[in-house]
Amino acid sequence: MIREHYPRAWEHLRDAQRAKATMASSWNTLVQDQLVRESVVTYPDGSGTIGAWLAWPPGTQPELTDLFRGCIRELWACLDALVVESVEAFSVLRRPRSPELPRFFPVADSPAGLRELLAESCMDGALRSHVAMVQDCQPFHVDDGNDVIDRIRRGLGYLVEWEAALGAGAVMGAWATPVEPQVHAAAPAVLESLQTAEPGALGEEERVLARYRLSSYRSEGTVAAQAGTHVDLCFTEGFIPADGEDTFDRRLTLAIETVARIAVSFAHLSRQVPGSRRVLAAGHSDTADTWIAAGRSSRHWSAEELAALASSDIGLGRVQDAGTFSLVVSTPKGVYERVVPHATPLRHQDRRGAAAETAVKDAAATWGLPDFVMTPSVERKGRGVREISDGLLVVGERGVVVQIKAREGEPGTPERERSWVGKQLTAAGKQIHGTVRRLKTEGVEMINGRGRSLRIDSPAIDWVGVIIIEHPDPPQELAVAVDSADTPVIALLRRDWEFLFNQLRSTYAVVGYLHRAGASTPVLGGEPERYYELAAADAAAVPGAVDPSWARRGGQPHSVPLLPAAPAGSDDDEAHTMVRIMLEDVATSPSGPDERETWQQVLASLDSLPVGYRTDLGRFLLDALDTVTGGEEGTTVWKMRTFIAGPEWDQLGFAACSALTDTTRAAFSAWLQLRHHERGEHRDLAGLRSVGVLLTPRADGYREWDTTVVAINGDPELTEEELRSYQALFNASEGPALGNPSER
After folding, report:
1. Quick one: pLDDT band at residue 736, thresholds 50, 70, 90?
2. How does pLDDT run across 540-556, given as a tens digit for each residue?
3. How many CB atoms sit inside 10 A of residue 31's CB?
4. Which residues contact residue 356 at a Cβ distance below 8 angstroms, ignoring those fewer than 6 apart?
5. Does residue 645 or residue 112 have the better pLDDT?
6. Which residues contact 146 (CB under 8 A, 6 or more apart)?
């Protein structure tokens, strides 16, 4: 369970356990190699001592100390990873404060100290239940009779003590516990008394383990002894055992058990939260690694090769070797190399099919929005039940029916695998068509990626089907048969599904792309090439129609391709992140069950903003917030911008204001109403929607700004007086509107 939800934390915990095992093995080897030296000394009066000391071979004591330090470091890393991975998983559900601050597992020596750590946002973004558990297990609490909690507190206390001692230069040593020393003296000497010493640290200086006295002892008599002492590896700094059962090994075992218990508790609490998670990040490249100028590539392309590519008909080259798949893309800004990463790792706890379903869903929720990801639902059919696909994407009036086919077990011969994939494509196609027939009959209730129940008006949605193949080594150059049914079906590798979402980072854009593609590529796995062929066509296309309302408003057309060549965010990741944060704010705004379907439509409108405009929007929002935050006291500062991607698209308005009051709320609503009304001068407003988002800075430290959303459908029915007032107020200072995407 830990590995499923917290793979990095699980790795750290496993490494800590390995370090402990290596310490024990190394110690046993040292003991067998005579690390512990013993002595027996008998004095003329018959008194004597049994002693011992350590003869460390060169370098072995520092090696053991490093192993112990590594074990403790891995345990702390595990605890910190639990928090970090929780924030990553659940940041799709909420926006953390101060994302630039580090997240970690706080342990303090007092309630005040813990409050200070939490105030630094160290757990912001994790679940409240996680925070409550961390607060409850702090070592400064007094034992309350709950053995499990008390053991966890002691275990964390040991970690704190050990970390401090290691930082002060303490090293590993040994602990001697005399148990049953024995003395054997030659006659006529007789053992009169034998007294064991108290347990204690054993070092390079001799330590007395027992004292004895012989009667009738003669100096030439032979005396032999056995120390009868347990000598255990021990971090002796501050080690004061409570009793004979309290050993260093048990303490370290308790510390590891403590971290494991906390990890299990984190995973258990995470399982209680419905909805999507972030994709597993291990081994997955970020945008900076996947899109680079070809001249900087490690492949060292020659100038002649790049020139030939740029002058070719499609300006696209494919390179695949040693499992690496890259495209070389000619763009107006030069030739770039686009690395198509492998699919993200699957979660280990589930069988391959279930893990693939989770990965497909989480990819759409991570790079798109979880609100549009519908988990499979089950409904009764006759005496049985059936599952409505492996999941749906629904955004606005378009939807995608998803079927996932995963290869269980070990692959066979290439011929066998080609046959398997072909059969799965046929079976999945039939399942998709059956699902669409069901969806077209009546609406369906589903749960989205935020765990919210939604009624989907499925008969009114335009559907396509997607078959996703999960295969550890998919067959190369496998032709995909054409599906001639009414519902288009597209076959993808899971790698290609993730490529589309990572490239566009918009559910609306990915769903639009799949509807535009309308069929599988001739060869399975060819989706990245098709994407770039369509992107090149978009770049060369004539811009579409301009919304007539722009001219009078002073808007400046700005044409961008619907399919950008560069991955979303590669030009300004901060700006794109700002747009995602804004969308998260809107998505997580409080809304009742009766408002959810309407809110979905509002969110779909905002996500419909073409990817090519998002850098401009994100930069505008960042700069606007800086501007209004720095306004003079006593003044109200506004920054506004409108985006219209075309006559048939929803109009989107964004603004930042220095204060959130009833007056500024009303002014923002008036501005959006005016902008919506102006579109009606050239078109019927009955089928048009405008959505506005207002950001207003906060100063309480809880979060950086408030987000207000207004949506208008149809005619706002402004009076003549309202219209004159709004025009006088807003039509003199607003910046230009942007729009006009191109598609071919």
Report:
1. very low
2. 877 766 666 655 555 66
3. 14
4. 346, 404, 406, 468, 470, 494
5. 112
6. none
Reported as a pLDDT band with limits 50, 70 and 90, residue 648 is confident
pLDDT tens, position by position, 553-588: 556 666 678 899 999 988 888 899 889 889 988 988
d(CA 736, CA 419): 57
Which 8-state DSSP code applies to residue 475? P
Give the distance from CA 97 to its chain's centroid. 16
Q: What is the pLDDT of residues 478-492, one digit of tens each?
A: 999 887 788 999 999
3-state helix, strand, coil in the chain (%, to 5): 40, 20, 35
Q: Are strands 398-406 and 462-470 parallel, antiparallel or unpaired?
A: parallel
CA distance 610 to 694: 20
Give me 256's structure tokens: 């590891």
* Whole-structure pTM value: 0.75
What the block records as the tokens of 282 is 């291990």
| Per-residue model confidence as pLDDT tens digits over 308-336 | 777 777 788 888 776 678 898 988 888 89
Residue 2 and residue 13 in contact, taking contact as beta carbons nearer than 8 Å = yes
Mean pLDDT across the stretch 659-684?
91
For residue 491, the tally of other CB atoms under 10 A from its CB is: 29
* CA dist., res. 726 & res. 736, Å (int): 17
Kindly state the tokens that stand for 461.
């949605």
Cβ within 8 Å of residue 479, ≥6 positions away: 522, 523, 524
String of DSSP letters for 422-444 = HHHHHHHHHHHHHHHHHHHHS-E
Query: DSSP labels for 572-602?
Result: -HHHHHHHHHHHHHHHTS---GGGHHHHHHH
Instruction: Look up tokens 């809107």; give the residue.
Output: 586
39: Cα within 13 Å, side-chain hemisphere: 13
Q: Which amino acid belongs to residue 543? A: P
94: pLDDT strictly greater than 60: no
d(CA 323, CA 495): 12
Asked if residue 223 lies in contact with residue 42, where contact means CB atoms within 8 angstroms, the answer is yes
Name the residue with higher pLDDT: 181 or 294. 181
Give how far the C-alpha of residue 438 lies from the chain's centroid of Cα atoms, to the nearest Å: 35
C-alpha R_g of the chain? 34
**Residue 40 forms beta bridges with which residues?**
50
Residue 407 token pair? 């290869």
- DSSP conformation class of 157: H
Query: How many residues are recorded in the chain?
Result: 744
